[in-house]
Design a protein that fits this description.
heterodimer; A: 112 residues; mainly beta; six-stranded mixed beta sheet; 0% helix; B: 116 residues; 11 strands
């Protein structure tokens, strides 16, 4: 079964609005990562948050992590049409830094 | 520029054929991974390798085989035993050890395999 599950599965917003995606997971983690995938392309690493961190920023991205609720959120501020893509969370499990487990993704559409 | 290259971009397989997908990286990463992605779904791990001449099965290894004879290369063979091979295949690489706790994966651009 998937370790990470994103919510919502699809999100459509207007350009300039903020987009928030959520990820829930089941077991203890070392870190949680967010990736972006444009249609038919590979994944691109966006941001990593360690289990002892609660919030992290990178440009227009803000990630939060709540280990007590086993959940994370990705906020994209002032969205652009070019942000249209699928976004995946991935978890690195405690005791195993060897592989990532990916969720099923959120498809974000930013309308111009 | 350092990166990870997958080839071919598109591949067509006839029933009963084995096909090999190429993955090459020049990032000096020790670890390499193969994932399968079906439409509208997440990534599922097929095989991974932490070091040359060693590899481990992932969650869906049946019908697939790999080799890791060189650090830079991690080819994936889709055998005739894989009954539903049509999918998007992604190769990734990473550093290993405790440093992996602070870094993500680098992905190739993928190979789309279709059975005809």
């Amino acid at each position: 079964s998937q370790q990470g599950e994103e919510d919502p599965q699809a999100l459509s917003i207007q350009e300039g609005e903020n987009a928030t995606m959520n990820c829930s997971y089941k077991t203890s983690i070392n870190n949680l990562q967010w990736y972006r995938q444009n249609s038919g392309r590979g994944l691109v690493h966006l941001i990593l948050i360690r289990s002892n961190e609660r919030e992290k920023h990178s440009g227009r991205l803000r990630v939060t992590l709540d280990t007590s609720k086993k959940s994370s959120s990705l906020l994209i501020t002032a969205s652009r049409a070019a942000d249209t893509a699928s976004y995946f969370c991935a978890t690195s499990l405690s005791g195993s830094a060897r592989q990532l487990t990916f969720g099923s993704g959120t498809q974000l559409t930013v309308l111009p | 520029d350092g990166g990870i290259t997958q080839s071919p971009k598109y591949l067509f397989r006839k029933e009963g054929q084995n096909v090999t997908l190429s993955c090459e990286q020049n990032l000096n990463h020790d670890a390499m991974y193969w994932y399968r992605q079906d439409p509208g779904q997440g990534l599922r791990l097929i095989y991974y390798s932490q070091i040359v001449n060693d590899f481990q099965k992932g969650d869906i290894a049946e019908g697939y085989s790999v080799s890791r004879e060189k650090k830079e290369s991690f080819p994936l063979t889709v055998t005739s035993a894989q009954k539903n091979p049509t999918a998007f295949y992604l190769c990734a690489s990473s550093i290993t050890g405790k440093s992996l706790l602070n870094y993500g994966y680098t992905f190739g651009s993928g190979t789309r395999l279709t059975v005809v």
